[in-house]
């Protein structure tokens, strides 16, 4: 019999309100060792609140948090536990005045099982700028340094909050590669992102958070499968109003001449489309992408 991988993180029924504003309303999820879990959600969904609660940076009103099988009490997190966690800071939280080398030195000094300064400079790709102050780095370089600093203690569980924010395409892809290498070496990773492609590329599972609740949880393929729709793209003379009136159409997007519809029953929609406009061209029917699944999942719950 195959043994179940140990849960590195287990949260159940977390509630947190700020005055009258509910930020978490029963959030529940579990994460296995070595997994990359992406937390997606619209602005204000509760992502930062959830991560802050897991790290013990804020107190919750009720619910349970288990890390590496240990129930956490209040905001206390033991030194031994914190030695196993890596957290990527936001740019504003770093010390602008310290040099890159000094930041690496400071961070690795916190940990017993540490990476050397040379290793951290290598991960950040900032060897030639080791003596530059943090404030003089570009936005992308700052992000890379913060990523490296999160790895200073060789964490077992790593929290990355929008790690590629503001990075150009090449830098983003390079960081994705580093995240994949960490996963391959057995590190468990919680990732929040607004880039759906990033979640699709990196995550084993995605948790969709909305209004403080996990409304969907599964692999990128499982989430897109929850939306039975297909994406139909074509060039047509029909107006938006005519297209929306076709059977089973859920969404419509128009880019100049091209129109893309999300349909719950692609065959019916295509048949009616061709009957209504015999001049349709460049017709393509594709599986729905994660972005449409995310929009539909969050729209459905909003309306409920
Ligand atoms: N310190 C605070 N005081 C009062 N309300 C707060 C505080 N922090 C968060 N909130 C509220 O709690 C809710 C969840 O916020 P949170 O920052 O966790 O969302 P988020 O998903 O991280 O959003 P974003 O994608 O915009 O970063 C929001 O309604 C927010 O206004």
From TrEMBL:
Membrane-traversing stretches: none
GO molecular function, one term: ATP binding
CDD domains registered for this protein in UniProt: ABC_DR_subfamily_A
Keyword Membrane in record: no
Gene3D superfamilies: P-loop containing nucleotide triphosphate hydrolases
UniProt-listed InterPro entries: AAA+_ATPase, ABC_transporter-like_ATP-bd, ABC_transporter-like_CS, ABC_transporter_ATP-binding, P-loop_NTPase
Residue ranges constituting the ABC transporter domain according to the UniProt record: 9-236
Entry keywords, A to Z: ATP-binding, Nucleotide-binding, Transport
PANTHER family named in the record: ABC TRANSPORTER ATP-BINDING PROTEIN (PTHR42711)
Protein name: ABC transporter ATP-binding protein
